[in-house]
Write a structure and sequence with these properties.
single chain; about 190 residues; mainly alpha; Four Helix Bundle (Hemerythrin (Met), subunit A); about 80% helix
Amino acid sequence: MEEQVLRQYKAKKMMLWVGMISMAMTFAGLTSAYVVSSSRADWLSQFKIPGSFTISTLLILISSFSFYLAKKSLLSKNIKATKILILTTFMLALLFVYFQFKGFAEIVAQGYYFTGAESSITTSFLYVLVLLHLAHLFAGIIVLLVVYFRLVKGSYSGSNILGFELAHLFWHFLDILWIYLYLFVLLYR
């Protein structure tokens, strides 16, 4: 029986890795298209990246650290601290989303929209990159809620923490993905 559980554990972890690699490939394709499109005559080279994106980057970094501390707390069987840290991660995620939309407002305040006469290829790419990342982040937020409610129910005990570990891995992936996107757009002009 233990061998079957180990195989299921490996299979679920492998499925998550395949999904994350697929997501990474999607963003690699989009950033490649961004590079190719940057040679267009209508590309905005002086476009200012919203300051709210910098704040959201700091927030997602802190959320990754709080999730790391939550895992350490779970492993040391401190369920109360684990719950608090998961809720902290959740609140930081919501703040991240808030500052992402605030960043969109800053783009609009600069006079650029997603579509229409006031749009540009540069800002359209930025909208797509951010919105696609947010879609994945919403999945991560749902995962955080599932982890929290499983903690409340006492589902994580002993060595039975696979769901928590998968959520932890996925959250760090989302963090790394955002940092890549942020630095890419910030540095690639």
